[in-house]
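Researcher: I'm preparing a figure for a lab meeting and need a structural model of a single chain. I don't have an experimental structure, so a prediction will have to do for now. The sequence is pasted below. Please return the structure as tokens so I can convert it later.
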Amino acid sequence: MRKIIFYLIPILTLIVFYVGLTSGSYLKKPTSELDDVAKHMRILKMNIEGGNWDAAATNLKKMKSAWGEVKSRIQFNVDKRKITEIDVKIARLQGLIEAKDKAGALTELSEAAMYWDSLGEF
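Model: Understood. Here is the structure written out token by token.
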């Protein structure tokens, strides 16, 4: 019995850590419409492509709110650099939308989407 416990505890510990560290892609999935970052990115892209800057600013606020909720769930399970890069892209995107720079906004949004898609991957 003692030998079983001796081997079981380290194995269970490793399993728990593995599941915890690889759950980032699961935790980034939306739990409601309010934290659906990918959906807000698609809507924002349509707003920018159409030159609807007021709607783009509104949807950027919604995307930032959704990202804040998701970020709190995934902060211990994904690479910190990817989280920081998405934060930087959103900040730049805000300035580009205020300046009504279509090309720059689409570039930053595409890069943010690329980082979003790679969250939870090794």
